[in-house]
Task: inverse folding
């Protein structure tokens, strides 16, 4: 969507310091001319920035930059981290720690709709933002979709792009989040101290036909990338009638 493009460009401008903390964004007409978009598209883009915590709207005054945030993963929208970082003007990176075929455990098989012990690709990576470790991830995919040997080179890029290239674009994902303390391996991979509190995300991605494609287990460093969600409503609430 065009609004998402404008939203990403404005977020990049904020992150790069073009609009400093506390400054007022240009008025609506100036932004419309800058991006050559309609008023509706611009409003959608700015609303997205408000949801992401980049700006705040002050009645009768304008829209102001609230802070230059660390990376923020808004859970109301599923996206490729690689593309997200690129749009934010941040250099994305991945270190492929391993890619191999394993037999699916009961949990993996249930998540992917496979039989127990079915062969699946296991991909372990560390994602970085401007060279700083941000996420350690383990992804499980049916080997009929991704081959850990022939696709190994492409696994250094976006997994979503690779899935789409193989004819399996991701339509949506379902995620749960829990806190997790870094053990010795996580501390080493993410360059944090042992016992450091991380955000653990478990997500299953599906295609448009509700077929499960990927089971992802991720550990996020909250000081680098923050998990957030925009909650709508409830709006006006009527008093209960006794």
Result:
């Amino acid at each position: 969507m065009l609004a998402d493009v404008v939203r990403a460009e404005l977020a990049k401008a904020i992150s790069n310091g073009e609009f400093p903390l506390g400054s007022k964004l240009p008025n609506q007409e100036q932004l419309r001319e800058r991006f050559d978009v309609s008023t509706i598209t611009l409003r959608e883009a700015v609303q997205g920035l408000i949801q992401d915590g980049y700006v705040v709207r002050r009645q009768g005054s304008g829209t102001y930059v609230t802070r230059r945030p660390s990376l923020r993963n808004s859970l109301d929208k599923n996206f490729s981290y690689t593309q997200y970082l690129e749009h934010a003007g941040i250099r994305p990176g991945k270190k492929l720690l391993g890619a191999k075929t394993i037999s699916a455990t009961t949990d993996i098989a249930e998540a992917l709709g496979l039989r127990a012990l079915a062969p699946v690709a296991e991909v372990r990576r560390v994602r970085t933002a401007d060279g700083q470790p941000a996420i350690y991830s383990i992804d499980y995919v049916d080997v009929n979709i991704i081959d850990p040997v022939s696709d190994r080179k492409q696994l250094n890029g976006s997994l979503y792009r690779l899935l789409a290239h193989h004819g399996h674009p991701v339509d949506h994902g379902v995620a749960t989040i829990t806190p997790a303390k870094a053990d010795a391996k996580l501390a080493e991979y993410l360059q944090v101290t042992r016992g450091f509190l991380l955000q653990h995300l478990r997500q299953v991605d599906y295609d448009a036909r509700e077929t499960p494609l990927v089971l992802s287990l991720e550990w996020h460093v909250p000081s680098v990338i923050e998990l957030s969600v925009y909650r709508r409503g409830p709006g006006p609430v009527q008093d209960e009638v006794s």
Observations:
- The chain has a mean pLDDT of 86.
- The radius of gyration is 20 Å.
- Residues 2-15 form the longest helix (14 residues).
- The chain has seven helices and ten strands.
